[in-house]
Amino acid sequence: MELLFTSERTQSRADELVDYLRGPRLWIPRADYPDFDDWSEKVHAQLKAEHKRALLALSHGAVVGAVIYQRHVTEPMTLEIKNVTVRPDMRGRYIARFLLRNAEIEGRADFGVRRVVLDAKASNVALRRYVEGQGYVSAEVRDLYGLGGGADVLFRKRLV
Questions:
Q1: CATH code of the domain in which 142 resides
Q2: What single DSSP character describes residue 146?
Q3: For the purposes of burial, counting CB atoms within 10 Å of the CB of 56, is it exposed (0-12), middle (13-18) or buried (19 or more)?
């Protein structure tokens, strides 16, 4: 097994990353995200322009996991995790944990943030339990995007 974690050259790998995001993903049922294709196009442009950042997990050069994050638009001391994705056949290898934790570290170092937010579908019990296991606390439940995909849980975590 070969795994490499990197934040280098993610701007130049935006095409590959977005193609990967459109494939089978851990924890993200497509029905919950009716605008996912539009979102992925937007993310593609934002990664190329470096408005969003990514950490990648590579196996033999191919993307097998990623976390996409940015400084929160309206809360400058907050890091916003936009997506955590791991290829289903790579489950159980702590890839998501490593990516998420390192996004927190990079966000604190690069942006000086003191807290992190992320959201998950209320119906996605496995992801909600996972996020809580990483120290995140549920802050509110509501339909954050208004797209008919169901209620979302907003999680927060204070960085130390």
A1: 3.40.630.30
A2: -
A3: buried
Give the Cβ contact number of residue 43 at 10 Å. 21
d(CA 10, CA 54): 6
User: How do residues 28-66 score in pLDDT, each as one tens digit?
Assistant: 666 777 788 888 899 999 999 989 999 999 999 999 999
Give the predicted TM-score (pTM) of the model.
Answer: 0.90
pLDDT attached to residue 148: 78
Instruction: Give me the amino acid identity at 9.
Output: R
Count of domains in the chain?
1
- Give the C-alpha separation, 68 to 99, whole Å: 9
Tokens coding 87: 């290829």
Residue 54: give the domain boundaries.
Answer: 4-158
3-state secondary structure 96-144: HHHHHHHHHHHHHHHHCCCEEEEEEECCCHHHHHHHHHCCCEEEEEECC
Cα separation, 54 vs 69, in Å, equals 6
- Burial (CB < 10 A; 0-12, 13-18, 19+), residue 146, is exposed
If one counts every other C-beta atom within 10 angstroms of the C-beta of residue 51, the result is 13
Helix (H, G, I), strand (E, B) or coil at 80: strand
